[in-house]
Amino acid sequence: MSEVYAARRARLRERCQAGGSASALVTRPANVRYLAGPAPQDTVLLLGKREDVLVCAGPSDDRPSAVGGRPDEALRRHILSGPGGDPAVAAADLAQAQGADSLALEEHHLTVARHRAVRSVAPRLRLADLGGAVEQLRVVKDEEEISCLRIGAEIADQALGELLESILVGRTERHLALELERRLVDHGADGPAFPTSVATGPNAGRRGHRPTDRRVEEGDFLSVCLGATYRGYRCEIGRTFVIGTAPADWQIELYDLVFAAQRAGRESLMPGAAYRDVDRAARQVLDSAGYTQGLPPLTGHGVGLEIDEDPQLTPAAMGKLDACVPVTVEPGVHLPGRGGVRIDDTLVVRPEADGGPELLTITTKELLAL
């Protein structure tokens, strides 16, 4: 992986130099990991004028971590000498010592106080904004990254499939969520990709619902949204079921509508498709059925080292999809007091010649009565 990390840093360096900066300071943890591999907490990365350096708050354990291995061994590590120091401030001091005259910072990640501390320790450096340069590099994944997402999706599918085989009536949302997260780890995940959502009855279909002590009842909609983290990469799956009995007519009608919207979004995932057009494909199915109000603010989003990355598939989003971009497609409808439906998949954008979008989360989307 050392060559992969070096190539990523080289691409970032080209962007920095094009913007007039001789060096850059990367502080956002997911970005440090992308450029340097799994690193200890609070580590920052200096892309220096003469060499790149990982600046760590304290001594690190050189054993491979449980979430993907060691930091890039080609990088020199600078360990702060005492407790309480700020690696970002130390990195700015190193950049100045290397003879840099400018330093690009991730201003969207630094606090004002931290920015001031960097300026005070390196007054001769011209500070610039690196912006979202690293996040932009992260949008398109290589096949190794996609492989990690694929394994994470398999783990999430396994955990969900096992839960569906168990008795659900009478159990609480909170208990089911905890069981799902335990099963994720049992099957090899680093942990959940985000807090697992289990919603029953009138809670079903709410995006981001936090599980409560409400118990599953016969005839409920049950919506579940979970994800696995594998070697740092995070995927997402969401499904909706009916508990105990054959679904009511209104449940079938609502489910079929959301399924049609989700399918329209999935089928629009092609290289060159505008982000807003993917959102529109799913949203217009729901709009045409009279569900204009209360729809989620987005149809989907990118996934990777974070569960919510670019691109954002929203009505106002600018930009177009590239191949090898993993995204979610997750439309839903919630009817206050009655419940609702959410269907959520993680897919990878692929050209039509390669079979079109690759579905990573394969648990059935048939409306099952459990």
Structure description:
By secondary structure, this protein is of the alpha+beta class. 33% of the residues lie in helices and 20% in strands. It contains 9 helices and 19 strands. The strands form 6 sheets. A 6-stranded mixed β-sheet has the order 4-3-2-1-5-6, sandwiched between helices. It has a 3-stranded antiparallel β-sheet with strand order 7-10-11. Strands 8-9-12 form a 3-stranded antiparallel β-sheet, with helices on one face. A hairpin with a 4-residue loop joins strand 2 (44-47) and strand 3 (52-56). Helix 6 packs across helix 7 and helix 8 (249-267) packs antiparallel against helix 9. The mean pLDDT is 94.
Give a short synopsis of this structure.
The protein contains nine helices and 19 strands.
Secondary structure layout:
Layout: H1 2-18, E1 24-26, H2 29-36, E2 44-47, E3 52-56, E4 76-79, H3 87-97, E5 102-105, H4 112-121, E6 126-129, H5 133-138, H6 143-164, H7 173-186, E7 191-192, E8 197-200, E9 221-226, E10 228-230, E11 233-234, E12 237-242, H8 249-267, H9 275-288, E13 300-302, E14 309-313, E15 326-329, E16 332-335, E17 339-342, E18 345-348, E19 358-359
Parallel strand pairs: 1-5, 3-4, 5-6
Antiparallel strand pairs: 1-2, 2-3, 7-10, 8-9, 9-12, 10-11, 13-14, 15-18, 16-17, 18-19
Helix pairs in contact: 3-4, 6-7, 8-9
